[in-house]
Structures are given as structure tokens and as C-alpha cells.
Amino acid sequence: DTAVSQTPKYLVTQMGNDKSIKCEQNLGHDTMYWYKQDSKKFLKIMFSYNNKELIINETVPNRFSPKSPDKAHLNLHINSLELGDSAVYFCASSPNPGQGNYGYTFGSGTRLTVV
Amino acid sequence: RKEVEQDPGPFNVPEGATVAFNCTYSNSASQSFFWYRQDCRKEPKLLMSVYSSGNEDGRFTAQLNRASQYISLLIRDSKLSDSATYLCVVNPDSNYQLIWGAGTKLIIKP
Q1: Taking a C-beta distance cutoff of 8 angstroms, is the pair B101, B87 a contact?
Q2: Rounded alpha-carbon distances, angstroms, from residue B86 to A98, B20, B54, B98
Q3: What is the Cα–Cα distance from A33 to A75, expressed in whole angstroms?
Q4: Contact A104, A92 (CB under 8 A)
Q5: Which residues contact A99 (CB under 8 A, 6 or more apart)?
Q6: Which of these, A2, A95, B4, B62, could form a disulfide with A99 (CB 3.0-4.6 Å)?
Q7: Beta carbons of A103 and B85 less than 8 Å apart
Q8: Predicted confidence pLDDT, tens digits, chain A (115 residues)
């Protein structure tokens, strides 16, 4: 009964490949996020969807494309992977602002290594 | 100036001691504040929200000082299991995006 689950947990791939990471939440939250945490441990927002609508689209290379088929799922596709894409990618979800405590719930992360 | 600043540490503290760390934020209109905990190679987890009047949860006390634009986290009677990175998080405008500090690493030693 994992609240936010993302797959795969580990991903090792060669430069130039295309890969996808999937995320699903069963909390009934309306908003989902993708974050990147690099080797310096900074958490950086990449994208956010609210009820399948893109609401945050930070400055990331357009090789990164999110897709939200429904409000419980948010996937991340990465084209032409580069060495600098190596990081931990976290999916998260939250209720809408104003709905009480809207702290995020994170998935366990996907550790991407590009070789 | 960074939007949310924390001392990266590490803070090396003996078990049983009290430890406190602060976090400053730049946007005076910020609405909501949180402390998250992140263990090594794990995801961040919400530790506590920070309310204007200050709040306590067991050994943990969080306080907000709007005049000086900082929030604090106090841990009493520290346990070995408190070793982690503590992330300060601010919502600047009641919108969806949270601003994250880089975290303060805490190491509790026996």
C-alpha cells in the first residue's frame, strides 16, 4: 500500500539512450511533481501537474518530457541521455494549496546513472 | 542571496544533547514553512509544519520568526536515529511550488 511509488529504483544506461521513469500515487492528491537531486543534494523542481494540467515547468532541457495520463500518474521521459543527467529523480504528490497541511509525500527515488 | 539558506553542517552532537539549527528565507511574504528530514539515500519525509505560534512534537520544537525571517528546529534529548539531513522548506505564495534549502546535516554520536 505504498503511497507514492516510482519505478525503476535504479537505472543505469548509456549516453544517448531514451528512458522513462514512472510514478503513481494512491493518496488521492491532485498535484504531482518531479524533482531532481544532484550530487550536491540540492532538490530542484522540474515539473508539476495539477489534475493532469502542467502548472510548473522549470528551465530544464526539452529532452525531458513529463506526461500525466490521469491525476494519479506522472511519468518522466528523457531523450538522448547525457552524463549530466545522472542524479536521483524524486516523484512527489500533495493536496492542493489551501487544503490544510499540504506537505509533499515523496516516492523513494530513481537513481539514474548515465555511463 | 539564496531564497532559503541553511548552514550545511555537519553538526556533530553527542547523544542526549540538545541541538538547534536555523534557516533564513528571503521573501517576507512567505506563507508556509516546513521541516523535512532526509536520511542517506532515502526520500525526504515531512517532519513538521511550522506554525506562527510555534509548535512542538515530542522532542522536536519548531519556531517561526517573521520579523527576522527565519525558522528554527530544536531537538531535545537527541537520539542516534536523529542523524539525518534536515531540510528547511518555504512556500512563498501559497502556490504549488515550495522552495527548498540545501539541508543541514546532523550526526549524533554515541
Answers
A1: yes
A2: 25, 11, 18, 15
A3: 10
A4: yes
A5: none
A6: A95
A7: no
A8: 679 999 999 999 999 999 999 999 999 998 999 999 988 778 889 999 988 888 888 878 999 999 999 999 999 999 999 999 999 999 999 887 655 556 789 999 999 999 9
Q: Is A43 close to B44, i.e. CB distance below 8 A? A: yes
Measured over the CA atoms of residue B99, residue A103, residue A29 and residue A40, the dihedral's sign is positive
Instruction: Name the residue with cell 525526504.
Output: B44
β-strands B4-6, B11-14 pairing: unpaired
Backbone torsion region of residue A100, taken as left when φ is above 0, otherwise alpha when ψ lies between -120 and 50, otherwise beta: left
Cell of A22: 514512472
Distance from CA of B45 to the nearest CA of A (A): 7
Residues of A in contact with B97 (CB under 8 A): 45, 48, 56
Which H helix or E strand runs over A105? strand A105-106
**Record: contact B91-A94, CB cut-off 8 A:** no
Query: The C-alpha cell of B64 is what?
Result: 517561526
The interface residues of chain B toward chain A in range 65-94, judged by CB-CB distance below 8 A, are 85, 87, 91, 94
